Amino acid sequence: MSSPKLAATAKPDDDPLAPLRSAPADRPFVVAQLGQSLDGRIATLSGESRWINHECALDHLHALRAHVDAVVVGVGTVLADDPRLNVRRVPGRSPARVVIDPSGKLPANAVCVQDDDAARYVVRTEPAPCPAGVESIVVPRTADHVAPQAIVEALFARGLKRLLIEGGAWTVSSFVAARAVDRLHLLVAPVILGSGKGGLSLPPIDKLTDALRPATRVHILADGDVLFDCDLRSPISRS
User: Fold this and answer.
1) Structure pTM?
2) What is the C-alpha end-to-end distance of the chain, expressed in Å?
3) CA 86 → CA 83, 95, 96, 97, 176, distances in Å?
């Protein structure tokens, strides 16, 4: 399977997909990804986001999909973008597709729940009808959202061990805040929007010592975007 096209200065063995390939089989392994501008925006105020990142970033996203057992999105992403969530830009199989839909907003005609031989799941907080061929997973609600760790555990119990949390920003943020993510891939494009929808949004902190400082490897993609591969299980110690 293809890795992202790195700039010529990258080392041949510097592969951001290696942690997925070597992920342990006895526990879940979760990678989240988010594409954004230099100023941390994922879309304009009108919601336009398609061309913030360049072609190599899209290739990397599809390579991530090809390396996981399931790709997870919130229903807001489905309503906004109607994504296919399959593998098209690189060689590899398409993963199972999971939509977090606690309030039953998922349209039956959404592209990602159509039958194309990939397993399809909808995560709910109570039993409800699902589109044909789609399995419902019921998990508890905590406060105002579905518990990310409960989702990870429910998918792991179904043999879906390597997970990609693809979007949107609220879903990625909730999984990071719940400490349910092993690696975070931030794909930053050299563009400044100046306004628009923000990316990661985590609970506020009072001290910089409480900030997340993950060990991070930086990869410059061939067409100018920069991939920050953040190991959220290995924070940088500060003396």
Assistant:
1) 0.93
2) 40
3) 9, 7, 9, 8, 23
Strand 96-100 relative to strand 70-74, pairing: parallel
CATH number of 27-200+212-235: 3.40.430.10
Contact indicator for 41, 197 with CB cutoff of 8 Å: yes
Whole-number Å distance between alpha carbons of 211 and 204: 9
> ω before 168 within 30° of 0 (cis)?
yes
* CA of residue 106 relative to chain centroid, distance: 19
Say if residues 1 and 92 touch (Cβ distance below 8 Å). Answer: yes
- pLDDT value at residue 214: 96
Mean pLDDT over 105-133 rounds to 93
Contact 86, 117 (CB under 8 A): no
In the three-class reduction of DSSP (H, G, I as helix; E, B as strand; rest coil), residue 137 is classed as strand
pLDDT of residue 145: 79
